[in-house]
């Protein structure tokens, strides 16, 4: 082991050897870390002056898991199972000192040790299913020997991350210590060998096991890794550790090459890339300790909750005292539901609610660091608010709008400080949905953009930078996607045909069911606003307009594309069928049938083509940002990787052919993106490194 270049070092504390890992930022299990660990364990196992070993990741760390960058490469030695086997087979006691994240492969290394001590901030978990995999170095075999099969299935299939005290309660760690490294060094010499590989699986409750399996399958969402995890964890009950390891490894290697795992790795890297914005290198965010939200309706209240959850003081501003108090009531209702469901304690709910102050006094806006306008989606309303803000907000305050479609430059122009204006487009419900579109206007200052991104991170959002256009990234693409779904309906598909195809693809809800949930009047207002600028060559489907004009606004009125009972259950409605048939007859359309695959391919293709236009115009920085937007904001199935990644897998020549068919059916605005045409001709892809 080369002590100079290796990320793994050994220090002696009497007869205890501490194997230290220093591979920033999170001690990922790169080839160098694996080799260093293996070499250290082998050398120290044979050293007569060493009585015990401690594995430490340093202050605040342990090992956060695999080096995902190596996942797309052929497996190289030493393999993680070899490292884990060396630790397990060491004749001397090995203590794991977990002062930070012990996740995935890091958790498997800890499980191979004889004693696991955790610092108060340690995190423990086998999280591989989040990447479409299962543990591949004994995690599925050692864990059930500690927790039993039912708990192991729940932990692995949910990819659950446990805090130190929760891990202690389940037996994953043996103690929680303030100075975990000092405690590990002190306890190591007296630690007895306790190989989990030699222990039997404790007898379990078969009903609990069946319930854990049912929950795991319900949450699988088409993920093959879940079924494989269940199978190999249950194999541990047979008691043959070697056979269980072999079954686990075979399943891991097969899953590693699966389409689902590759899509999830793509999203993993996309998340890392999303925060890299040209021009923001070295730019510091403005400090934000207090925020105001203008508008306390459903969206404004949700934004206030998201901010309060992040520890910020929130001023909730409404037109009068009665509306402000009603807004606080909406915030309170969110926290009451969370307390009732057990997501937070009553004390936590009260603490967060106390951070929100309702008011009708706009003078309160003079002291806050950032203002988010969440008023009605109307340009005149929003520009009037920003004129008022310009006169009240302190110099240097960030002025943000939650607009989902409107021209950000026009809103910014209502102020004398357009450099301070940025878009913060939340998705409903704002306290739950992870996507946050950070929209850059023509004159948005770099530090304002940096502030918006920092705020998104503080709230736990997936922030995506978007340029200014009608609908930005997500709603612009979604509008075309919805339009072509309506074209399919007018041409012969039923709304339930389209929704069933999308749900079979992996969406939790189909497009028409989502429209009913959101309210048909929202898109109706947008279409009316755009009517004057609509290309006369565009095919316009007026079925949704007819439904709205008949008072069918969706679930809130008990009827939209579907009919709803008192419990909110949807069912096809003969009245909708009649409206559709009338619309077809008015245009002389003879309906034809579509298969689920035809529907899926058509809608995916038009999304990808519009995405290519968004890229070419600079509205999105990269194709992977579009994928993240749709996965986190529109229900696109994670295991498909997002629309741009999925289009690559479909093959861009096939995508182009489908877009040409969509253009023939849908008219203007559906023409293939020039970038799509170019890539299809070159057998290229949207994702770098995926094609020619």
Automatic annotation (TrEMBL):
It catalyses: a (3S)-3-hydroxyacyl-CoA + NAD(+) = a 3-oxoacyl-CoA + NADH + H(+). Its main location: other. One of its GO terms (biological process) is lipid catabolic process. GO terms for molecular function: (3S)-3-hydroxyacyl-CoA dehydrogenase (NAD+) activity; enoyl-CoA hydratase activity; isomerase activity; NAD+ binding. Residues 471-564 form the 3-hydroxyacyl-CoA dehydrogenase C-terminal domain. Belongs to the enoyl-CoA hydratase/isomerase family. In the N-terminal section; belongs to the enoyl-CoA hydratase/isomerase family. This is Enoyl-CoA hydratase/isomerase family protein.
